[in-house]
Amino acid sequence: MVQSYNNRVSLFVDRKILVFEDLFLLSQEAQSKLVKMGATVLGPVNTTQSALDFLERENIDGVIIDISLEINQVLPIIAKLDDISVPFIFAFSNNPHLDATDFSGFVLSHRESDLITIAEALFIRSNSDH
Questions:
Q1: Contact, 37 vs 8, CB < 8 A?
Q2: Which residue, of 1, 40, 84, 88, is most buried by count of CB atoms within 10 Å of its CB?
Q3: Which structural domain, as residue segments, surrounds residue 79?
Q4: In the chain, how many domains are there?
């Protein structure tokens, strides 16, 4: 089912989104846009323990993970997210040298189209899987 533009924009409304990054994934512009779209942005966090602490304390709806993190940082988070059935995606940071049209991954940027793509992956595809 194809959702209308307004429905897709509203996918972040009342959602708690945790951002787990290495250095600089979430820009101020992207964070502001997520908040304007109705999300509560938690973090960003940059250690495995900080991410696990958030997962214990908060009812998180989705997690955006920096693709540049080391595998040993990410595996405990993925295991926990799978245990508690929280959807997650891996994302690239917004980079002028990266052409997002050349791959099927996700880019965390202030562009509404990028954020809608992330919301659809977190909240539409994950709902159909469960």
A1: no
A2: 88
A3: 1-97+104-123
A4: 1
